[in-house]
Amino acid sequence: MTINKNDIAKIVSEVMYLDDASAIETARSLFTEYGMSSLDFVDFAFELRNVTGKTFTPDDLWPVNAMLADRTCFAAGTWTDIGRAKLEDVFGKDSDIVKGEPTATELYSHFSIDFIEQRLTAI
């Protein structure tokens, strides 16, 4: 099933008990600006799977957490060549997001409904 930004916002609002799905700005981070917790995220990924009928894990939806925990991707506070390549796969090779040394907080700021919509097409 194809899912759009309004559908995604509705799921976010249900999982996070927000009153108005239409008030969620699709470019704003669900983690840093709306306070999505790790438990909310897992519930959200589960609900997205149910609605879309796609099979994926939370790490498929937001692979940054797994990359940060993987020493072949991120070690001693810096991204490895493997990690950079994976970031480019997720965010796009020419994305400003992957230039420099993006921190976890900087990356979390990009987990938005806009990102999720794009990510779902890649899964």
UniProtKB/TrEMBL annotation:
Transmembrane segments: none annotated. Pfam families: PP-binding (PF00550). SUPFAM superfamilies: ACP-like. Residues 7-62 form the Carrier domain. InterPro entries: ACP-like_sf (IPR036736), PP-bd_ACP (IPR009081). This is Acyl carrier protein.
